[in-house]
Amino acid sequence: xxxxxxxxxxxxxxxxxxxxxxxxxxxxxxxxxxxxxxxxxxxxxxxxxxxxxxxxxxxxxxxxxxxxxxxxxxxxxxxxxxxxxxxxxxxxxxxxxxxxxxxxxxxxxxxxxxxxxxxxxxxxxxxxxxxxxxxxxxxxxxxxxxxxxxxxxxxxxxxxxxxxxxxxxxxxxxxxxxxxxxxxxxxxx
Length: 189
Ligand SMILES: [Zn+2]
What we know:
Blueprint: E1 15-18, E2 23-26, E3 32-36, H1 37-40, H2 46-56, E4 60-65, E5 72-79, E6 95-101, E7 106-110, H3 128-166, H4 171-179
Antiparallel strand pairs: 1-2, 2-3, 3-7, 4-5, 5-6, 6-7
Bound molecules: zinc ion (ZN).
The site of zinc ion has 7 residues, from loops.
């Protein structure tokens, strides 16, 4: 499906652009770009996106038309602060007014609007509880690996027994040992 520039006086087909981690739909006449809510998660701060999305449910009608279905978009004001705590923007925080196509999950940025947002913050250090979980996963991994080694050693022991039965003098076993990776009877270990 083609997406069109939301400006009624434009309506040009938006061009897909990607820098590898952020996909946008750009107006070829430089009116701005649309981005889906999904794409924005990695780019803008989490609290701004939530604010944007929550207020879009009750946003004021906009004179822009949604990129896909050409339905009226809604205008929402988003206060911008520099942390990711929700609902704590100071009263005098700067805000940007954006147009949202709620059904299509598109946010439209006029030229210069996107640049006013502060960037997404890196995820914080894992909490002690999260570190414990990471530790547990690592331990489970080590256990599974130890179990695997045990099994292999067991196979190695079985192979030795088998070799003793079919080749008690060990003529073949020397060759067999070389073919068994990790078995200690090969001469170069
Ligand atoms: Zn346009």
